[in-house]
Amino acid sequence: MPLHQKRPLTPSQRFYVANRAELSTKRPEKSLVESKNKTGGRNVYGRLTSRRRGGGHKQLYRLVDFKRNRFDAPATVIALEYDPNRSANIALVQYEDGQKSYVLAPNGLKVGGVITSSRNRLDYSVGNNMPLREMPPAMKVHAIELKPDTKAQLVRSAGTSAQLVGIEGDMATLRMPSGEVRMVLARCRATIGEVGNGQHQNATLGKAGRARWLGKRPRVRGVAMNPVDHPMGGGQGKTSGGGHPVSPWGQLSKGKPTRRKSKTTNSMIVVRRNGRKVKK
Hints:
This protein is mainly beta and 280 residues long. Helices cover 2% and strands 24% of the residues. It has a single domain, classed as CATH 2.40.50.140.
């Protein structure tokens, strides 16, 4: 899906780079959507917990099937659609009994294609879902389970894919999009191919108003604030006070590891995303 830049007949089109996707313009499947209420970044007590959120166009939440638990039942792709809740596009598929479902649209999947999910080996076509132990090494996969027969939790963003390094015993080794090398159970299922809409990150909004349509409010730099509002505020001229960049609550904002050392899945990581091997 190539990027498209319009002839700038208006100022808002001068820097706008759209992702021209050949998607369906029909309304989403009514049985596969539910209402979505906006919070404005507030929690149940009405307190602001996520800054810079508010406004935006109304959205419906698409019920994407991350479980893919209709085994050995072929499904035909009848439409490729836009999903405002994620960077990836979604595909509307229909099974032989008439049931419809939404799945992530991998790169190369087209209308009229057939995809299948199984606990056994299938042909290595884009969109098929099967256990990692049934796949050859170097295969690109996405929508990977962390626990068998639950749902896909890893590698779901637009343009991403993980590479199957190899199978050893009951464990499969994967190279994640971040560069991290980790292990998961070989019984976990994954979908073949990479997630579509890879040009998503290269599109530009072009104007501030388009960001407001997405529910994003303006972002004020900490150095532009007063000392009472931010640790990096104040000073004569353009200065940050000589300290390291921090959040309004004093937490380091550049380079500090945020992963908990007590996380149970730390033992599954072989190489971290910074290239360091994990000591066992």
